[in-house]
Amino acid sequence: DILSNFFIRYLEFELFGQFKINRKIFFKQKKDIQIEIFKRILTTNSGKEYPPKKKSVENVIDKIQNNLNSKLTLYSNIIKSNREKILFSREPKKTIEFAGKGISIKIGTNFLWDNRFLLSSNKCRLNCESIKLENWEFIRSKFFESKKKKLSFELLQTLPLIRIEKEYLIPYITDEVIMKN
Asked: Which pTM does this prediction carry?
């Protein structure tokens, strides 16, 4: 009940896969609750089945508590903290490793991209690749030329770049209506 209540009241989730918690409220929790909060967020955001080891989580929590501004990695997550928030996001390197040179998804099949995005199409084959420096100029001109970029490159790298014939899509960046068609 304590964990559920904490998540309902204090956990913020951004569409792009970033979790945020209030630093002061987090450190008011008992140590065992802090550990469980971290373990559940890290497991969810990593797409892994099992949680990280307790000792690793304790070490990260101690480092964050002793340093107002920090950036650490644990369990395929980047954990950033400042005076107000603790932020969790997927580690881009892990998404790029997952995608390799690209993934092709046949018509009518489902594919779980990076253990986080369920991709499928009943009309066309989907070709997916990760977003990286090598294709950034194309992505910037295609998706961000006419609008101000509100997403860090680090977060953008954790999303799939989907190609359907000559059309390109990125979840949360491409209009939702287009994504569903």
From this structure: 0.87
